[in-house]
Amino acid sequence: MTNDATVRVEDRVLKLTNLDKVLYPEFGFTKGEVIDYYTRISPVLLPHLKDRPVTLKRYPNGVDGKWFFEKNAPEHRPDWVRTMRLESPGSSKGNETVNYVMVDELATLVWLANLAALELHVPQWTVGPRGGKRDPDLLVFDLDPGAPATVVECCRVAEQVRVVLDDDGVDSWAKTSGNKGMQVYAYAPAKDTSEYAKAVARRLAKEMPSLVVATMAKVQRTGKVFIDWSQNNPAKTTVAPYSLRARERPAVSTPITWDEVEECQVPEDLVFTADEVLDRVDSAGDLFGS
Q1: At what angle do helices 151-167 and 193-207 cross, to 10 degrees?
Q2: Cα 63 to chain center, whole Å?
Q3: How far is CA 29 from CA 19, 176, 237, 254, 269, in A?
Q4: Residues 247 and 151 sit within 8 Å (Cβ to Cβ)
Q5: What angle do CA 67, 72, 74 make, to 5 degrees?
Q6: What are the φ and ψ backbone dihedral angles of 150, each rounded to 5 degrees?
Q7: What is the pLDDT of residues 125-157, one digit of tens each?
Q8: Per-residue pLDDT tens for 50-59?
Q9: Rg of the chain over CA atoms, in angstroms?
Q10: Which pLDDT does position 131 carry in this prediction?
């Protein structure tokens, strides 16, 4: 692959730059390969980004270099990139706004990959065509292990989260974080998803005190799994399914089956790189939400 290229993506023309720049030094994974991954995974990724304002985590000098979050759409963007100006949920005054990128099409996804936006983060709610915020449609439990706990312990906690949700008549599914933990999702069973998630987290912390904590204090998390219910706050975002993560290897936040959760015995059981995820989707389709 040449260093720069002008390509047509559907009916858009994009200039791609520095394609052979290595963004994952330990694995020699280049920007061109990042773009290739996002292009090939787009049929299953784009539906999970639809109507959700995207927060970008950009690594212009690779995963070992300086990075930054970007909520506002870059000023120098193609005129066909759709944006949505929304009130910033974190604003204390309630009148600050953010002009978010809305990833409607493959060309926008490719454009973001060319900006080295390795990670894509989204809220648990969507917006309407005129910018109206809808109630949350997803519930998420972010399971964060405190060393020496790992994703293996997260799996044991995820199984119990599933039991509680099942008892409430709520189907759930799981994905890896692509980092050290994992998430359990469900379609929103209540209007106040944050309160519901907090109640579940506190219940499990009481029932499983040697394994689960429901408070953010890091001093309490050693060897335990923190059930972060606060990810349901409208101001928060969670890494999107199929997003790359900026770790030493090009790992992906990967939808997994409950069988895989139950069978996980070592952390490596639930580490999936870009190529492995593409193979999984080819053979099993989209597991997220199923």
Answers
A1: 110
A2: 17
A3: 10, 21, 26, 18, 22
A4: no
A5: 75
A6: -135, -170
A7: 999 988 899 999 999 999 999 999 999 999 999
A8: 999 999 999 9
A9: 19
A10: 86
